[in-house]
Write a structure and sequence with these properties.
Layout lengths: L1 H21 L10 H18 L2 H7 L3 H5 L3 H36 L4 H5 L1 H37 L14 H29 L9 H4 L3 H18 L2 H13 L5 H35 L7 H8 L1 H23 L2
Helix pairs in contact: 1-7, 1-10, 2-5, 2-7, 3-5, 5-7, 7-10, 7-12, 10-12, 11-12, 11-14, 12-13, 12-14
């Protein structure tokens, strides 16, 4: 498991640096060792106080030792990581949000503070960036632990060929229904925008506004390598194929697919949040051109839109898998 930790850390670091470069910022904007040390320290203390400190450390052992874990140890590790993710979120977000609120409330009272407001806020946001990146590492490890637990409880998934396979007619019918469903959902989205009057606010085409290839690329570059490290890359696409084809599946496959879907959704959400924070830090770090401020923030928040769309597809797939399980 220690190798998964190292590979996840390397992958996340490289993609984050690439994201900063695509945002037109400097690496100096996201490198703040005080904020990083603070997040790590708060997380370490919280984990120790929770009583899961020793169990958390045993998770990141050698590959040989991890393979020797029994089912009870794996379940305990899964529980530890679940609590650790929640502890990291609530403990690491507490102090930055408090300082952020205090900084904004006193900005007008100090001319010096107001003149450096953008840079001060960008430094505070760095804690949320580190929080998102660390969350992705824990989610990756949790996905691998849960996959091992599922394999421990049943026969090898790759050797399980007992599931019922529908005919071509049933496959085509299911795929057609899914396509019609997503077209209908898109139509509702368009009609809502027309009747709400949102599209009349500006002269830009709403479709062109949300098209940003670097944002899509960053989400895939964050999520797919981490899924591969956790061992759920192939399972995710098998699950998508099963969900959209309408095939029946057994309980073992259901749990594997659910683990892959939930892990992908969590990683995707953290990746989009980290991308938005990266963009915001780069924007606030250099406010020399105020005229581009709102346009830059608009582009910076596009990853959240893509993340919601992708997670909606994954959630629908998970629901279909749950309904099709025998």
């Amino acid at each position: 498991m220690i190798l998964s930790l190292i590979f996840s850390l390397i992958s996340i670091t490289l993609i984050t640096f690439a994201g900063v470069g695509l945002s037109g910022g400097s690496l100096l904007y996201i490198m703040n060792f005080t904020s990083l040390a603070g997040v790590l320290l708060i997380f370490a203390v919280s984990t120790l106080l929770s009583g899961y400190g020793k169990q958390f450390c045993t998770i990141f052992s050698s590959v040989k030792k991890f393979k020797s874990f029994d089912l009870q140890h794996l379940k305990k590790s899964d529980e530890t990581l679940d609590f650790s993710i929640k502890l990291l979120f609530y403990s690491a977000i507490l102090i930055p949000v408090f300082i952020f609120i205090y900084t904004l409330s006193n900005a007008s009272k100090s001319p010096e503070l107001f003149s450096h407001l953008g840079q001060n806020c960008s430094v505070l946001l760095l804690s949320l960036l580190y929080l998102s990146l660390l969350e992705m590492i824990l989610i990756t490890v949790k996905a691998k632990v849960r996959k091992s637990s599922i394999f421990f409880m049943a026969e090898d998934f790759l050797q399980n060929e007992s599931q019922t396979k529908p005919g071509k007619k049933e496959n085509s019918k299911s795929i057609l229904k899914n396509i019609i469903g997503f077209v209908l959902l898109l139509s509702v989205f368009i009609v809502y925008g027309l009747f709400s009057g949102v599209y009349s606010w500006g002269s830009n085409n709403p479709i062109i506004t949300i098209i940003d290839v670097p944002s899509i690329l960053l989400l895939f570059l964050y999520v797919l390598p981490l899924l591969a490290i956790s061992g759920n890359f192939t399972i995710l696409f098998k699950g998508l194929k099963t969900a959209f084809s309408g095939a029946k599946t057994d309980l073992k496959s259901k749990y594997l697919y659910q683990n892959a879907f939930k892990s992908a959704m969590s990683l995707n959400w953290c990746a989009s949040f980290a991308t938005v924070i990266c963009s915001s830090v780069c924007i606030l770090g250099d406010l020399s051109d105020i005229s581009r401020l709102f346009a830059n923030f608009a582009v910076g928040f596009i990853p959240l839109f893509y993340s919601a769309c992708i997670n909606l597809v994954l959630l629908f797939s998970e629901i279909k898998i749950c309904k099709s399980a025998s």
